[in-house]
Amino acid sequence: MAEKASFYYTYIKSFDKVVTVLQMLLFSALMFFILLPLLKRTSTISIDFDWFYRKGAKLFYDAMDKTFNSLNKAAERLVIKTLLPAIAQFVIVAPATLTVMLLRPVWRESLDADEKSLKKREEELIARFSSGTFPVAYSAIFVLIFIGLLVLLGRAAG
What we know:
Layout: H1 2-12, H2 15-34, H3 49-111, H4 115-131, H5 136-157
C-alpha cells in the first residue's frame, strides 16, 4: 500500500514535474547532436596546467635540492668539521689552561721561580691533566678556588 502511495505522489500527482525534467533531458540530447559537428578536433596548440605543474615541480625540486644540499654541505664544513673539533679541543684543554693561569701567580710568589722552572711546572700540570692523575695538593687548591668562587658569588647576589 505504501508502494502505491509513493508511486502516486512521485509520478501522477507531480506529473508536470516529470514532463518538465523529461523535456530538459530530451532538449539537451537534441542540442548535443545538433552541435556535434562544431566539436570536431582543430589543429591548435593546447597548453594545459599540468604542463606547468610537471615542469615547475621539476625546476622547484632542482632548485631546492641545490639550495638545501649546499647549505647542508656548508654547515657540515663549518660546524661539524671546524667548530665542533675546536670546541672539543677547548673542553679538553680549558681546565688545564685555567688551572695554569690560576697557579702561575702562586708559583711565582711562593717559589721565587724563574721562567724556565715555571714552564716546566706548567708542562707537568698539563701532562697530569691529560693523564687524569693529580696530587692531593692540587685537589685541595681546586676545592679552595671553588669555595672562594661560591663565597664571592653568594656575597654578590646577597
